Amino acid sequence: MNRRTAARLLLVPACVAVAVLAAAGTFPAASDAAGPDAATHAPEMVPHPLGDIPPDDPRMEAYSHGNYVLHVAAFLWTAAILGLIVFSGFGATLQAWVERFTRSPNLKVALYTVLLIFASFVAALPFNVYSGFVRERRYGFANQTFADWMGDQGKALLVAIVLQPIVIVVLYAAIRRMGRRWWMAGSCLAMLFAVFIIAVEPVFIAPLFNTFEPLKDARLRSDILALAGQEGIPANEVYQVDASRQSSHNNA
């Protein structure tokens, strides 16, 4: 099978992903799912052993079911992108360009990783625009303008360009030095990187996207610190974050 044939075959999951997205788009939107009388008629309560509860919101059911569809579409879209990069020759073209630019093995890996991250970002952007902005706005969750949303995407891209090449360079250095035993170093590297991200993300990365400030509700702050003390959690401050700037989800 030549590269052109393989590339054409890899268009299949991309087309399926588009079809899946189209199916996701058939669910009712926030403005019309509840019907014209929703504002004037309270929903009938549903009997429950612990007490009557309100019925499920059709909008939220549609949103949740659409999320399942999007997970499948995201997998297919990503598979198609990576497959096309490999089998279309684009990946080899990037490698050839990097090899002409430098002879350093580590710099080659770093540059290739940066180019691959950027190419993947551009290729995935249409899907991400729909799933992360258009659909969220359609269901009434998005609070950002498109420019603000793209700004956050750009920040995430820059963070990936800074951090991921470091990890990949170290991993490939381990592969060159350790041969078949590279997986041991790779496993340790993955654990160390996870710990690093857990420690660094709240302090240096998260503030790039949101504003953190001490909790203004003094009583709530005292209650949280008291509970932390009872559980043996060392803490001397509680922060609040303006996550509602991006979204109106109930965890924002």
Order of helices and strands: HHHHHHEHE
The radius of gyration over CA amounts to: 24 Å
Note the beta-strand portion: under 5%
What is the oligomer described by this structure? single chain
Strands side by side in the biggest sheet: 1-2
If helices are DSSP runs of H or I spanning 4 or more residues, what is the number of helices?
Answer: 7
- Specify the biggest β-sheet: 2 strands, antiparallel
User: What structural class is derived from the secondary structure elements?
Assistant: mainly alpha
Percent range of helical residues = 55-70%
Q: What is the mean pLDDT?
A: 83
What shape does the CA trace take? extended
Terminal-residue CA separation? 49 Å
Number of E-state strands: 2
Question: Which residue ranges are poorly predicted, with pLDDT under 50 across at least 5 consecutive positions?
Answer: 26-40
Please explain how this structure is put together.
With 252 residues, the chain is an all-alpha fold. Helix content is 67%, strand content 2%. The chain has seven helices and two strands. A two-stranded antiparallel ribbon has the order 1-2. It is extended.
